[in-house]
Known about the structure:
Layout: H1 8-26, H2 33-40, H3 44-51, H4 54-79, H5 83-92, H6 97-108, H7 116-134, H8 138-156, H9 169-175
Helix pairs in contact: 1-2, 1-4, 1-6, 2-3, 4-5, 4-6, 4-7, 5-8, 6-8
Amino acid sequence: MVRTRLTAQERHAQLVEAAVTAFAQGGYAGTTTDQVARIAGVSQPYVIRIFGSKQELFLATMRYANERVQQMWRAAAAQDPSLRGLGMAYKQLLAERDLLVVLLHGFAAAADPGLGDAVRKCYGDLFTLVRDLTGASAEEARDFFASGMLITVLGAMRVLGPDAVPTQPWMADLLGTLPYD
């Protein structure tokens, strides 16, 4: 068996992808660097050598999730620079459930002094990007984010997305109110 050596950039990306999976399952507090290492197929000391700490690994994971959303929105805005265009693009992320769950874990972990500023910056960057791409007012962007958070939560609960559970009456009522069909 011939092994291919990964570049440092490829290894970093592999570890962040493994971290998305691990942190989606256990959140910041409930995930260890050993779990990330096992998913990536490397040693735990190697993860620490690359990132320095679990906190830095989580922050790299949050930055990746933020960049993924920004990338999706920028591409969508090139075709339709409206809140609807960005909303439709965001709903495509339901197929990347772990990514959305990691965002939720990041928002929940923002009370941690070592994470809070970076997580708030990620959220602020997304808010600013939406306004810049669409020309939306602060109030319009707030409503967009409120709907987006609902979509994120429903995706995390598997009410929306490719792996959605069977629809219950309350779900049908709520789903019927969502924008960006």
